[in-house]
Amino acid sequence: MIFTNFREIDKLGRIVISKDIRRHLNIHAGDVLQINAEGESIIIKKAEKKCLFCNADENLVELDGKSVCRDCVEKLRALT
Ligand SMILES: [Zn+2]
Fold first, then answer.
1. What CATH code is carried by the domain that includes residue 15?
2. Residue 76: domain span
């Protein structure tokens, strides 16, 4: 399914992502989006949750809004 919207960018550089696209991609307020510029295009996608230290994407726990895997939690614990 392809969604196409035309949106005006505001003075602060913000755009609104339409409700139908947010619903389709399961994007909610507070989610983090990754924004890449590629040639003449801007690609916005939902950021994948990965471990802050090793980029693992499994066994994650949240700490102050950051994702850390349980292996790195154990490594940090061993430092103390
Ligand atoms: Zn990790």
1. 2.10.260.10
2. 49-80
State in Å: Cα 27 to ligand 1 middle: 25
Alpha carbon distance 29, 10 (integer Å): 19
Indicate whether 23 and 55 sit together in one domain.
no
Q: How far is the CA of 17 from the centre of ligand 1 (A)?
A: 32
For the segment 24-42, what is each residue's pLDDT rounded down to a tens digit?
989 999 888 889 999 999 9
Does residue 62 sit in the same domain as residue 39? Answer: no
What's the whole-model pTM score? 0.57
Instruction: Render pLDDT for 54-75 as a digit per residue (tens, 0 to 9).
Output: 999 999 999 887 899 999 999 9
Beta carbons within 10 angstroms of residue 67's beta carbon: 19
Ligand 1 centroid distance, CA of 76 (Å)? 10
CA angle 43, 47, 49 (to 5 degrees): 160
57 alpha carbon – ligand 1 mean position (Å) = 8
